[in-house]
Design a protein that fits this description.
five-stranded parallel β-sheet; 5 strands
């Protein structure tokens, strides 16, 4: 591998780690008392059904200067959604970044949070049916910005 290719590869992974966090690192940061706010970017129904303990419910489509006015600008915001089949956390991270917050996206969402053995809270449905993640609420362009 050439030095230029190696440097490009290293830069890629450094950028990735700058904007993503896994369940283990999030749990460690929270246990250490770091200023981390976990944001559930799914629909309120999904949040009520099951969530990461202490998570703030703020669906990505409702993120605005008004809905984040009381947020601590010094904190790290970690967005999550259902998992790899949902992009609400990506859209939420983008919205918060556009609003000037420091943001990371939780890799694997709540599914990988649970998979790693971390607790959740909320009321699970008796049927086990998945709640609406909120991704189909309104139309957006490819960047996640509302079109209507």
């Amino acid at each position: 591998m050439s030095p230029a290719a190696r440097d490009e590869q290293i830069a890629h992974y450094e950028r990735k780690l700058a904007f993503e966090i896994d369940a283990w690192d999030l749990a460690v940061a929270r246990e250490a008392g770091e200023p981390v706010v976990v944001v559930d970017a799914r629909a309120p129904e999904a949040h009520a059904r099951e969530r990461i303990p202490g998570a703030v419910s703020l669906p990505h489509r409702r993120m605005s200067a008004e809905t984040t006015a009381g947020f601590d600008r010094a904190a790290l915001y970690v967005t999550y959604c259902d998992g790899i089949g949902c992009n609400a956390s990506t859209k939420g991270a983008l919205a918060l970044a556009r609003l000037g917050f420091r943001v990371k996206e939780l890799i694997g969402g709540i599914e990988w949070w649970k998979r790693d053995g971390h607790p959740t809270e909320g009321v699970a449905t008796a049927t086990g049916a998945a709640a609406d993640c909120g991704c189909d609420e309104g139309e957006t362009d490819r960047t996640g910005a509302p079109t209507a």
